[in-house]
Structure formats: C-alpha cells, structure tokens
Design brief:
The structure is a homotetramer.
Chain A: E1 19-25, H1 29-45, E2 50-57, H2 61-70, E3 75-77, H3 80-85, E4 91-94, H4 101-110, E5 114-117, H5 125-138, E6 142-144, H6 152-162, E7 169-177, H7 200-217, E8 220-228, E9 233-235, E10 242-244, E11 250-257, E12 262-268, E13 277-284, E14 287-292, E15 298-303, E16 315-319, H8 340-356, H9 365-384, E17 388-389
Parallel strand pairs in A: 1-2, 1-4, 2-3, 4-5, 5-6, 7-12
Antiparallel strand pairs in A: 7-13, 8-11, 8-17, 9-10, 11-12, 13-14, 14-15, 15-16
Chain lengths: ~400, ~400, ~400, ~400
C-alpha cells in the first residue's frame, strides 16, 4: 500500500556535461510543451545535471511576453538566428512552422547544437536529406517529436512485439481520424496550399501513423494508395471568397513491410466523431494487439495460447501501470493516466539520455528520413495510380 | 408496460398462392437454418398462407435421419434432382457446397421453382452469369443468403444512410476478421485448393464485407488489392503430410465507389482474437456510423449537428429495439437480442414477400453477380499488381 | 471450416410419453414466445417425441384470431378453465397477468398437468406457497420463466463459478436499469396500484436480478433496502387526471448471502439510457466476472493467476460460442448471437428434459418461493427501516 | 488548424502577495506530486507571482537526497516543525502519514501558513474538527487533496449537473475497486490496525467516492451500510506470522442525499481486475452520466430529449477537449489526455486562486469535515447494524 515513485531511464553523464542550456524556437502549443518538458525532465528522470532555460524565440511580441512570464527564460528574442548561433546554448527545440525547420536546423547544427525538432521534419525530401547531412557532418544529436511513440502503452506494445509475444506479424491495420476539418466552412489557409508547404492529412496526420507502423513493424517494401480531397474549396478567412484546396483531406493505403507482412491504413481529418483516433490492430501468428490514442491509458491484448480453452479466452484490456515503461516515473499506482505532456517528457528523457551517453536517440533525423520516404511513396502512388516499391 | 409483438412485413398474397411447398437441399448448418426459417416464418410475419416442408435432400444417411426427426419433412431423399424437378414443390433452398449451386439452380429454375441459395452463389463468374440467365429465362424469384444484411441493426443503418442522416458518404472502412485458421495445424482440405472450388478468405468471408459495402454505399468503380497466404502449407487431415495451400489467408483492398467515395477494407481468417468481427465505419459529411457483428444488438452513431455543443457530443451507442426494422416481430422490448437464426427469418420473410407480391427480392442472383464481379476484380488486381476499373 | 449444428441436452424419454400436448394460456408477448419455443424445441433438442399445440386461450378475440393464424393450434378458446382441465393436454404455459397465476396453476395441477409459468409466480406470498403445495401434492413438474438465466453466457458463468474458477465469491454487485417509465406522462394503470397487484420495479424487474443473484451465489441471509417512488402521480390514461402511484420506481439493497459474501444491488425503471441493463460484477478470491444483458453475446472474465505478469493481464471479453452451454444447438460458429427467443427455447428444453426424465426443473415453484421470500424481505426492510434476516 | 494553449483560471493578485514561498512535508509519492504541481502551476495558470520551493521535509535521509536533486528546494530538513514555523514560508503541503496531519496543520495554522493537506484530513473526528477550528481561528486558507474531483471530466460533469442538464438527480450509483490487496500474502502493516490509524477500504478509498458523491449530489441525509474483512489475517512482513487485520477490505452502503435522491455504493481493495475503477452512474429526470477514472479522458452522457427519436438515441461517449474546464491549459487538441499529475496542478491552481483572491478553496477543511462525518456514519451504521441519520 505504500506507493513511491520509481525512476527509470536515469542517464549517466558520460560526456561530463556541466549543465544543459536550452533555447526554444517558436512558442505555439508545441513550444510550450517542449519548455515544460525541459522544466520537468530533471525531476522525472533524476538527471545528474541541471537544465537552464536560456532563450525563447517567437516572432510575436505578445506570445513572447506571455511565455516569458509562464517560464523562467533568461532572455526572449525575435531573432531565431541569434538563438541558433548563441555560445551559451547547448540544445535547441525547433517548434516553428514546418517550412522553417531546415534553415534553423542547419544553423543550429553548424553551431554545434543538439536539435529536438518537431515533426514533420521538413516540407520536401531535399530539405529532409539536407537535415540528415548537416547533423551528421557536425556530429550533433537529433530527435524528432513523434511523441505518440513515447507513451507507456506504446512502449509496452513495442516491447511485446519485439519479444515475440504475438509471434510473427501478419498484418497492421492502422487508422488515424480527427474531425477538425469536417465543417466545410473551416477557412482556407496557407496550410491548404502546396506552395505554402501544406502537407494535407497525409503529411500532418498520416506521418504519425506511418512512423508508428514503421517503428513497430519495420520499413515499407511496397505501397499503393489513394489520396482524396472532399472539400475542394474553402472560404478565405477574410474575404469569404472560395479558394482552391490543394492538399488531401484523406487517404487510404495498403502495402507490405520488408518482413512481408501486409498493412492497410486510412487517415482523414474529416473523421466524424473522432478527436484523436490514432490507432491500430497488429495481428501476429501468436496473438494480437489493439490500441487507440483516445484511450491511451490502456491497450488490448489477445494471446492465442489461452485458446486451448476457447471458452474463457478473449481480448484483454490491459491498463497501464508501473510495470510498463516509464509509467512509474510519473505515478506508482496503476490505472492512472500519463497525459499528453508527459509523453513529451519521456521524449526529452530519451533525447537527454542520448546526449549524455553519446548514443542514438530514436527517432533522429535519419529515422525521420525513412518516414518521409514512405510518406512520399504514398503521395507518388496516388499521383501515378500504381504500386511503388521503396 | 404492456408489451405486445408487432408484426411488420406481412405480405399480400397477390398471386393467389394456396400454400408454399418447400424442398431443402443439403442439411449442414445452413440447411437447418433455412428449415427453421421456413418453420417460423409464418408466425413471424403472419403469412396469409401455410408452408409445407415437403422434401429434404442430403447425401449422408445419418444426416438425413437426424433432420428427419428434428423437422417434419414429408419425405427425405439422397437424390437432389428429384427435389429440383418435383411437382409438389414450389421453392427450393440450396444449402449444398458452392460448386453444386449452379447445376441445382439450373434444374430448379427449369422446373419453375423459386430459389433461395446460399452465398457465394457460384465458384466461377461463368456459373454466376449462367444462374442469372436461367432464373430470368424461367421467371423464378431468387434470393441469396447474405444474411448479415438482414439484421435490424443493419437495416436501420441502411435506412439512416438512405435518408441522408449522415450526409454524403466520404469513406467506408471495412473489416472482417475470424480466427478459425490461425492454428497452422488446421488441416488441409479441398476448400484450400483452386480446383476444389476454394475461395479463400476473399471468397468465403470477403464476399460478406464486399456485398455489405455495395449494398450500403453503391457499386465499386475501381479497386486495388493484395491477397496473401501466410500458412502456405497445411497438413493433410489423414496422412499429416504437408500440402500446398492455393487460396488466400487474408486480403486488403482500397478503391472508390461509383459515387466517388473512398473505401478501405481488410479481411482475414487469421484474425487473432476475433470470432465474427464483420464491421465497418461509414463516414459521411454529416455524421458517421460504426457497426460490429460481434455486437449485432447495437450500432454507433455520430451526428455532427450536435457539434454546435462539442462539449456534450460524441458517438452514441444505439441499442436496437422495436423502432428498428423487424425487431418488433421478435420482441417488443428494446435492448434484447435478435439472434443469428432470426436474421435468416427476416431473409425468408423478404423472399416470401417478393414471391407473393411478385416483386424483387434483394439480393437476388443479379445483385449477387454484381458482388461476384467486385470480388473478381479484387482477385485480378492482386494477381496483376495494378488498379482495376469495374 | 465445416460447421455443423451440435445438439446438446437431448432428453431420454424415461416415462414413455407418446407425445406432449400443449395448452397456452394468454397470448401477449410471452404467450407467443412460449408457443414458438414449443414449436422449435424439437428441432433444437432433437426430442424423441412430438409436440402438439392443442389449445390457445386468450380473453381477447382479435388476439385469438391473430395467433390462431400465426400458429397451428388445434383449438382456440376464451375459457381458460377448459384448457386447464382438458383431457387431451399434458402441459400448460401460463402467460396471463400475474394475479391469475395461482388459480390457473391450481386448476392445472389438480388436473395433473405440468406447468410452465411466467414470473413472478404470484402476487402474494400466500399464493406462492399455495402454488408450491398444490404442485407437490399432485406431483406435477413446474418451471418458472426466469429466461435470462438460460442464455449460454449465463450458463457459462454459472459453470465457471460452480467450478471454482474465480474462487470463493466475495461480492455480487447487481444492476437492472430500464428507462420505459422515465417519461412522467407514461399513464397510470392497475400495475401501479397495490390492489391491482402492481409489483413495482422491485417485483417486475428486481425479481430477475434477485433470482439471478440467488442462482449464482446462493440464498440471502440478511438484507437492508430502500424503495422509492419518484413520480408519485401519473395521469389517468383516459381522463388525464393525476392519480396516485402506489408502487416503487426504484430500489437499492445490500446484504449478505448465506456464504457470507456481500451483495449490493440497484434496480430502476427510471434508468435513463438503458433498455435492458440487467447485469452484475461477481468478484471472487481468484477472479471476477462481469455481464450485461444488453451485450448478452459476451461476458467479461478476469483471472488473477495471470497477475504474475501484471503487465499483460486484464479483463477479457469472452465471446460466446459452441464451447458454451447450448450455443451449438443454435449455431456452430462463435461470435454469433443466440437471441431472446432462443433463451426461451433453452428454458423449454430444460423443462421437457425434467418431464421426460422425471427430474427437477430449475427454477421450479419451490425455487421461485425462495426468490419471492427474498423479494418480500427487501420490501419489508424498506417498509420497516431495518435489517431483515431471512 | 492552428492550435494554441488557452489559459483559464488565472488569478488576480488581490492581496498584493510578492511571491509564494512553499514548504513540502513528506516526500513520498504525494510529496513529489505536490512539488511538481507547485513547479508547474505558474506556467499552467500564468500566475502573476513566482513560486519559490523553500523547504523540503522528510524523515528519511535518502529520500531527502533524492528529491533535493530532483527539485530545487532551498533547504532540506528532517524537522517538520521548523518548516511549519519558518518565517520564510507562506504555504505548506502536508503529505505525511494521516496520523500526523493534525499536529502539522495546527503548527502551520498557528504560524499563519496556508495549508494544502492530503486526504483523508485526519484519523479521528476530533482531529478533523480541531483542524477546522485552528484554521478558522488563524484565518489561513486550506485545501484538501481530493484530486480526482479536479479532472476536466469531473469538472465538466459537475457543470452539467449544476446547470440542470440531466434534470433532478434520482440516483447515484458509485463504485471504487482496486485489486492491490487481493493477494492474501500482501503483508500486514500498521495500516491494517485501528491503533496505527488504519482506515481500511472505507477510509482510504471510500473517502474519494463519498466526497465525490457529496460534491456532485449534496450532503447525505441517512445511510445504512456493511463493512467486511475477507482476509482476516495477513502475514507479518518480517516474521511471516499471521496477524489480525482490524480494518475492512470492502463495504457497501445505501442511503439518501438531503435532496431525497437515493444512492448505492460499493468500495473494495479486493476488486479483482481493477486498478482505479472509481466511478459512478448518476441518473436524473432528464438524462444520465457515467464516469470511470480508468478512462478519465471521457465520460458517458445520455440526454432524454433525444428520446423523441428513440431509434437514434443512446449513451454518448464524450471525449474531453478544450471546451471542458482547464483542458486547454494543458493541450489545445481534444481527445488527448490530461494525466494524473495534472489534476494535482488544477488543484493547486484552485488553491492559489483562493489565496490570491482571498476566496474559498474547495474542498477546504470544513468541506472535508462533512466528508469525514459521512464516512463515520457509514462506519457507525455497520457497527450498529442500523440506519444512521446525519
């Protein structure tokens, strides 16, 4: 009945760093999330060093003022390059719009800073490849913000699959539905134009599902797909005039992993009734696992071996608890919830561990390139109306 | 609080039939199910005529003896042709193996008998087309046994879609998983050979999902797919020797309906943890509907209009009741269950109504041909590695 | 993959009965349900004798006409006593209003007829006791229509408990909610008066929950309760004038079984959002079971032994299938549904087995008296504001 | 598509406080949780003042060392009285064992410190009353750590009830099950003795359920209950010798609120299969609400008005989002999760708002006394075997 926090994932300071000095670029939702992760990481993982919030960048003055009060940054600035090149900063969080990632990452890497960058990493394959190169060249650690991979549920599922608990994977059935674009009057924006770097449901949402599939089941081998735009015009936010939408509202894809296993997936931001229905059913030769991010505190597990007594077998609802990865860092009592922000703390924990132990963080820019390649293949398959081999 | 049965779907006897004399061919599970449907139909729909169970055919003597006791057939026989050609029979139920459907249907149609035939209708497109022709030529009514379409839940869903309750359909996400072939030691049989008429997960199971998709959302326009055989060999039932499996264990497909709506589907008989997970999520511009045959007494409904108050909106669990189609024929109290066998009674009710009112029964052989065409396109797409336009 | 019906529960004809001749009293919903059960029982259990539908009684002529067409009774009558005393009838189904049960049962028993009587057996303890006596005196078999006990799910649960699968029971948490009286404009009727034999939520609904608790966990030892009437007046159906309601809308009770295990229960016909939420969670020293009649095709099972690996343990959803009691009599394929009417067939199967094998049917009048005693104790406890020891 | 944090609940600094200087007493799980709440509160609510972590008290040196590194306290100490009486501290968090609450609260109040105290507030009614008095006398603000009341789901439910969304409440059906004492080999401890201040399932767990019931539905009027100890002996942790358990393993209670509404509840720490199944169904005259802490990111809502179309009505699953209380302080995107630790931040937010605006925090010591009175009545009712009027 005595319940105490149990701290896992505490890093060794193998590189003898004195403290970690942080700059955060962009203070929208994600900038705040990164900052609170930096703020809470030490308590969560009992880091052997302190973190200093050094510089906050945002283009908007009100935003800067708000977050300057919320957090204890040493300085705030409207000049991102100053942050990327500063001498008193070891690591930057890039939380600005996608099309800016490349030049910020380049500047930060050249200045020897480790980079925690939000996803998607870039708005073109060329930029993504350049980001991999520049990071490698300057030997900086990188981490991409695919936070959903970092929940105790998903980490537990990854372990179950890796240990062969459900046998060889035969099928991955993925889904990602949100409903925030269902209303045809949601206004047009640069996000819905190719020129503006709009990525559509495929890039914005599908990237989470695709990366999760690859992380859990391995790289794609071949894929076929169809992208669709249902609401082909949306009203301009100011004039109300109808403007052309250039990005997809939804896509479906199917294909195989390198292992030979089949996958099927569908993603839509017209997903009526759903807020965060990012999930899957993974079937193997010895069992199966289901997950839905809307109920991130649990997963469903079927174990075939129990089948010898079919009369008492069935899918189990497993509630996460301290026996699952990193849950105990937040709460010793099972059945409680690790929230969205805490996935981000687990993410920063993995990144700082990689920095301090001079190790590989997952997913880094190179891993991200693999995701981008798969996303591009899905886009190409739909554009060209044929199977694509990766 | 007073609860009385409410009988819907009572037919008029427009053709002045005196009674309906029935022959049942094949007394496996489906033969018995047809027979009990014939037996209970009158009480369920208050038919204006009597049904007579005239003849039972099965090749196996023990089976004939068992069912001769269970039911009150006037005669039992080992000669199916005698039943198809008998003068004292108006309608036959064909419940024999798939490869026999064509010749029995031909004989029955030529003899002027109405035909209630189990699905899939035939083992080749040629046979399916011939069945349509012979039935049309002889003016007999036909009905195919796609029983899952006949549950109150599904009929209610069909009505909701048809009335525009969820707007224009934008996506159909279908699934059909059973686990009865998961064990690699399930023995080989003729059903797993092309020559023996084996149809694989695509034909045996997928036909239910595909027909449901077409019934609810309209004909397919184009499709791309991948079939897979995971357990490529299975032991011979008698010798234990490993034999080649020629049929698919699972398939995934995606494509569009003629309406332009997108679909995604997956079917497998290696579906760990599932017994009868035939279901879908249908998304429209005004709402969405989810269904799973494992919980056939309910469906999930999301109505976007409620979204004006997002804080109190969400997917509803609607329990079936007497305000849904045909439920009241079985039970006046909502929340109770109409069982598997009762879907078959609703099916026979639709068929007898079509006979007595000289109307179209759905799905008849012609409707079935549309399903077979879609199934064939999925097979061809996988074989040829390309999109197929129907 | 070959699926055939499997018939369990086939009785031996130990008493050499030639056939079973049936009279049905009262043709409301339950009368029809009894009749279809009599009609389908032979096919379901492969009974060694025929059933004859001899006489149908109802006070209403239209009702008689309707059901005379639906079913093949040899005669219809408006005189129940004629049926109870007829020479050509072996067994009667009593499906008339509750206050009539006693005199019909008395007449039938005196005439040597076996009695299948709907619940609740009587409107007073005195009547209930008299029914037990007269049946015993005349040596007739009796069966009460507590149909929910007869579903494959519940019978499977009973077996799991009896075999010690969940250890010693420590708690029964019962619920029964329906919403059909939520609207305060549901009119007044004799059912809401004590004089008219109204039993309230306690008698009408609670009797199902209480009998289920006793069947699964054993007799009550002590109980305390509170009954409540929320809508104390309801409009007269014809005049609209508000009339006093004398029966309860809801009750809660708690107490112990003779085993010492604790129970908690609540029943209401003001149960917003529920249609047939009759269910429970039974907790034992080795596991637990949950059930809800609204999802009668499944139950939830937790097995503590799996707890050694807490990270993969949780409540299982077990879908009913042919490995559960009597499921295979209706369908060979798991995950399908046995409907409400089919529970009644399982019930008649148990009754006919008791008749033919000269055995005890459960629950008979004597078992029913135990239920009535518990119901009365709950009523008394609320009336007297104190614990009652049974 | 642009998602930004939305900060609600920002307090005005009406009392002109310069900063808030905090002492935390006891660094078990709850001490850490309080500390991170103090640490994150400013960013979450954009507090107009800074928080300083001044002093950490724990009796255990290793614990002190661990948390001294995790958090930035100015000093650590093994002397709680020093913290309670310090001049440089404005507010204390009391997270030590229950029996210590009274003397710490007394010392802190006498020294003018505001008090955030973990529940249950005291181990006797006398102590609880004394705590109310001393806080009132010295005019300090108090807050009790009933954190489950502070989740966005529960706060949304509270608002729905308060606004009459489900009409007049007719029934509260509460449950609280955890399984951490199921194993009979869980060792004995002081917590299982009356002398040691053990409160049993009633005090430890039931207090959450009872306080939630009172918060949502109002004070209890009368109650009847039964407490039970199933495992009456447990092995001594060191000797293995069996020792007497003096506290309850489970209890059931029923009664009425002052409004007249009925309640039923059950709580157990032998609740097989459950980790954090704290929940309820609240039924009203116009709808109903269900909640389960194991799925804290959603609640179920039934609205009777939709009943005019019964064919499309049912319980809705409402996912929490930024339109629910305080969700937007943590995440702008619905369907994500606010975790356990974040409830504690909402709690500290309410407390600091009360301090800065010189207002009432809920639940304070006086509110807690009402909960304690109800808990005591449940204990007394079981001890005395009779109804208790509060």
């Amino acid at each position: 009945m005595k319940r105490e926090i149990h701290i896992a994932g505490q890093p060794e300071n193998k590189i003898g760093l004195e403290k970690l000095r942080v700059g955060v670029l962009g203070m929208g939702f994600m900038g705040g999330t990164h900052t609170q992760a930096w703020q809470r990481g030490k308590a969560t993982f009992n880091w052997p060093i302190d973190v200093e919030l050094v510089a906050l960048f945002d283009t908007d003055e009100d935003t800067r003022d708000l977050h300057a009060n919320r957090f204890d940054f040493q300085r705030v600035t409207g000049d991102w390059r100053e942050v990327c090149e500063a001498d008193d900063i070891d690591v930057v969080s890039i939380c600005t719009p996608n099309f800016t990632h490349w030049e910020m990452a380049e500047a930060a890497a050249k200045s020897g800073k480790h980079i925690w960058c939000e996803k998607p990493m870039a708005t073109s394959m060329a930029d993504a490849r350049a980001m991999v190169s520049v990071a490698q060249e300057h030997g900086v650690k990188t981490m991409l913000g695919y936070n959903y991979m970092k929940s105790p549920s998903l980490l537990a599922i990854k372990d179950l699959i890796a240990s062969g608990h459900i046998g060889e994977i035969t099928h991955f059935n993925g889904i990602y539905l949100e409903d925030f674009m269902c209303d045809p009057n949601v206004p047009h924006s640069w996000r819905l134009t190719k020129k503006g770097g709009g990525k559509g449901a495929l890039g914005d949402m599908g990237s989470h599902l695709i990366s999760m599939a690859i992380w859990l089941c391995g790289p794609f081998k071949e894929v076929v797909s169809r992208l669709q735009t249902i609401h082909t015009e949306r009203p301009d936010a100011s004039t109300g005039e109808m403007r052309q939408v250039e990005t997809d509202d939804q896509f479906s894809a199917l294909g195989t992993f390198e292992s030979g296993a089949l996958f099927t997936m569908h993603t839509s931001w017209l997903g009526q009734g759903h807020k965060m229905n990012l999930g899957f059913e993974i079937t193997g030769t010895k069992g199966a696992i289901k997950f839905d991010q809307e109920r991130m505190g649990e997963f469903q597990l079927f174990e075939m071996d129990g089948n010898s007594e079919m009369s008492t077998n069935g899918y189990k609802t497993v509630l996460i608890g301290p026996y699952h990865p990193f849950f105990g860092n937040f709460c010793p009592a099972p059945g409680h919830h690790v929230g969205f922000n805490e996935m981000k703390i687990i993410e920063v924990g993995a990144f700082v561990k990689a920095i301090l132990e001079d190790d590989h963080a997952y997913p880094n820019f190179k891993d991200g390139l693999l995701f981008e390649t798969a996303i591009q293949a899905i886009q190409d398959s739909s554009d060209e109306g044929r199977w694509i081999t990766l």
